[in-house]
Amino acid sequence: LMQTARRLEGMTRHASVHAAGVVIAPRAIVEFAPLYKSAKDEITTQWAMKEVERVGLLKMDFLGLSTLTLLTDAAAEIARTEGVTIDLDNLPLDDDKTYQLFRDGQTAGVFQFESSGMRDTLRKAKPQVLEDLIALNALYRPGPLKGGVVDDYIKRKHGLAEVKYDVPQMETVLKETYGVIAYQEQVMRLAGDLAGFTMGESDLLRKAMGKKDPAVMAKQRDRFMEGCKARGINEKKAGKIFDLMEFFAGYGFNKSHSTTYAYLAYQTAYLKANYPRHFMAALLTIEAQNTEKLAMYLAEARDLGVPVLPPDINRSELAFTVQPEGVRYGLTAVKNVGEGAILSLLAARRELGGRVASLFTLAEHLDLRLVNKRVLESLVKGGAFDSLLEGKVDDPARFRSRLFAAIDRMLEHGSRHQKDRDRGQSSMFGGDMFGEEGEAALRDALSELPDATPWTNAEQLTFEKEALGLYMSGHPIEQYKPDLAAYGAKGFAELAGSVENCAIGGIVTGLRMVRTRRGDPMAVFMLEDEAGSVETVVFPEAFAKHQPMIRADAMLVVRGRFEKDDDTCRMVASEITTVELVREKLAREVRIRLTMPPHNRATLEALAEMLSRHRGDRRVSLEIIETRADGKAYRVKATAPQRVRPSDRLVSEVEALVGAGTVVIR
């Protein structure tokens, strides 16, 4: 084993490719380095980074950043809607709205500055100029954070700690960072100014410090001490300065790198601060396929006061776009709808003069190889066809079930129409096979729809979440608001500061099951209501008691300690129950409203059978509105003989029988 291990030690285990590294040579690369062809046909050097540099070749890292696309798309949208040309390379660097955005920590979507820790640092540091952003970008790394360097920088910046220099020559180099070494270039300049190092020698010192080679460092230390002595700096101070340089060089960031990153962050923040709608449209488009980030940035849009409008077959484009009312949802973010299908839909809309009036008219112009049943179902569930019923019904969303039921007939009509058109076949009178009356009916968005049981509000929201990854027309928790208020649960908008013992109701998202260092299971999730969300931590003791209730999309009431500090907040759970159990506990009765007709004795018999399957201890009151032969409506109130358990399942079943919105639990 040891003999084999000695032969293997130090050998290359496998070939790997740097994600962004490109090697540049003055002539064909084969004249300078051996090459390797991977299983994916990638051509790489057989030598690793250090060997490539050692033979004198140039290695550059080229990063493909989505931020660059974000900037370009936002600028294009500003030009389209506002007629303003944004020169991203010549933005004013003294824009106070931009720096205020940094100072407030509102940097979601801002390159390199959107982590919660960095946002907290921004609120403490309160940057005022680009140089502040450059320094924070360089210092916000594990080494400086762990060593307390970031806190020192902030205190010195605000005059809460004295800025000291061991020798006067250091002030010139470190003044911009308040005496803190933040950049590799500062280490190199200190070596030159204090010890007379050439630029080449300074760079060798920087590399030696980064590698922490004891033998090389001993030689560099001797050279530095001699240079300082020659310039009148005493040995004790010189040694202290070298130790300081060595400590900072271990994590030092080069300023050129930090500057380009900080400027890119400034460009991003400038657009967000001055053109929030255009910025959010571009950002949401980039993250359209990432449901988790999309939901996060939609919440950010809400916080910025930017309305996000639902998808619409007559108004949406491929990407998110800025419209007078707000940011219109891009069709690219609807699940199961590919780019080819969207382009076919948009082409059909153009052929129809820019507006689709009917599902069946649309089907005649679509490429049905791209726009299939699954695509149309997702669009209906997401509400993209609601505008077909605008002005025809009070609540188009209630007719989504009829739109959904029409899809098969729509596809059949479209396929038949396109085949007839390709064959040159038409009806005797110049219309199609439906005749003039049939044609008119098919082009009426409402009359073409088959009858279908309306979706309940809960079903509609579930379908929206399925198609869009989020709730668009409402939130499932809204129907429980009276029950939650009666129970004493707060909404997130009501919580202004830390509270030792409170209850919050919401829906579970982003659930993570984790273990403590001792291996005990616990959970972390976001508890979300219509106003926002809060990170909720369930430590092992509480987790052991309430584990069965903790699952994705569960609606829970969490009681515990609410902690809020500046812009961050979390809930530490002690007790957990389901929203449904809270409602059952508080409910006094179930009230059901029927209208006759269309309902009749058969409906009442079916309802009685249904109630008998949900036995409990809460009474059921019936409100029957009957329109008789004389045209007058008569209202009858009665109490059903059965008593029931007021569950969500009961509500869903009854509403499926007698109609959405007909059941109220009091």
What does this structure look like?
With 666 residues, the protein is of the alpha+beta class. 44% of the residues lie in helices and 17% in strands. The chain has a 5-stranded mixed barrel. It has a 4-stranded mixed β-sheet with strand order 16-15-14-17. Strands 5-7-6 form a 3-stranded mixed β-sheet. Helix 27 links the parallel strand 14 and strand 15. The longest helix has 20 residues, at 255-274. The chain is elongated and about 115 Å long. Residues 427-442 have low confidence and may be disordered.
In short:
The protein is α+β, with helices and mostly antiparallel strands and 666 residues long. It has 28 helices and 17 strands.
- Please report which band the strand proportion falls in: under 5%, 5-15%, 15-25%, 25-35%, 35-45% or over 45%: 15-25%
The number of E-state strands comes to 17
Number of helices: 28
Average of per-residue pLDDT values: 86
> In order across it, which strands form the biggest sheet?
9-10-11-13-12
Q: How widely separated are the two ends?
A: 76 Å
- Judged by helices, strands and strand pairing, the structural class is alpha+beta
Note the overall shape: elongated
Helical residue percent band: 40-55%
Question: How many whole angstroms does the radius of gyration measure?
Answer: 33 Å
What profile does the largest beta sheet have? 5 strands, mixed, barrel
Low-confidence stretches: 427-442
Blueprint (SSEs and pairs):
Layout: H1 2-8, E1 21-24, E2 35-37, E3 43-45, H2 49-54, E4 58-61, H3 66-82, H4 96-103, H5 116-125, H6 130-139, H7 142-146, H8 149-157, H9 169-174, H10 184-195, H11 199-211, H12 214-230, H13 235-249, H14 255-274, H15 276-286, H16 291-303, E5 308-309, E6 321-323, E7 326-328, H17 339-351, H18 359-363, H19 373-381, H20 400-405, H21 407-423, H22 435-442, H23 457-468, H24 481-487, E8 489-490, E9 499-515, E10 521-529, E11 532-538, H25 540-546, E12 555-565, E13 568-578, H26 579-586, E14 589-596, H27 601-612, E15 615-627, E16 633-644, H28 648-658, E17 663-665
Helix pairs in contact: 3-14, 3-15, 4-14, 6-14, 10-11, 12-13, 14-15, 15-16, 24-26, 27-28
